[in-house]
What does this fold into?
Amino acid sequence: MVSWTQLADLAAAVCILLGALLALIAAIGVVRLPDLLTRMHAATKPQVLGTVLVMTGVALRLRDPGVVGMLALIVLLQMATSVVSSHMVGRASFRAGQVRHDLLVVDELSDGPSHEEPRGAP
Amino acid sequence: MSPVMRTRRDGSTRPARHRAVQPIPVLWLLLVWLALWGAVTPLLVLGGVLVAVLVCLAFPLPPIDLGSSVRPLPLLGVVARFHLDVVRASIEVAGVVLRRRPVRNAVVAVDLETTSDFLMTLVASMLSLIPGSVVVEARRSTHTLYLHVIDVPDAEAAEEFRRMALALEQRLLRALPPRPTDRERP
It folds into this structure.
């Protein structure tokens, strides 16, 4: 007879393993991908889902309502901050010219009519 | 967001002062505080309100003008679709990382329909979490987002991405329809 705690433990183990695998893939991506902008993709997307899965696994294993709030907070802040940081790093690298243009099929930011936004525009 | 200006009696202008302590941020900070402690007791709530008010006084921010009404059911749909897309995007990017052939990318300009700063921010953050794109540049004056899209083999795929991004904006506009502003009212 399998009790529900054993089932929850099994689900937790699967979640944590999958999350760790995604974090590993993200790390491999940061090393393998050719330029900074492409690396930002690897550093944000699989890593966010990996964090969500690890937190779900931890919540299933601990089964403590007091911890769930903090785990939800971790996921929310992870989503909010990874967006901002990837944008800031991507923007800075594009403005500094650190872009492999040979990898781009379409580049509407460099090819479009030059548009000077006043500095410090709101 | 450009600051709201007030006119002084002598005709000169100054930026409007906002009340630093606003109820909704205080409520959010209180929720964060309780989530960190992992329990709800009267003493924790009292301490949380105190800390929230102090944070609001130390880091004052202007109030966010939502500028749109909220329709719960379509919003729920957008959120559900968003979670599915997060999973799909992660698997896609993982696939790009693991396969051997070199990856081609694109920088795509997306002209948004909305004029609201709040909705533009929301679309930008959702787009950078979901379909293999990172916002490289945003132009507020023309409501244009420039997105770096991973794994775009040709120009046709870039068009496809633009359609997808605009469809996401349309879904969001249906969930949060903008209220008519004073300027647009006849």
Remarks:
- Residues 72-175 of chain B form one domain.
- Chain B has two domains: 15-58, 72-175.
- Chain B touches chain A through 49 residues (CB under 8 Å).
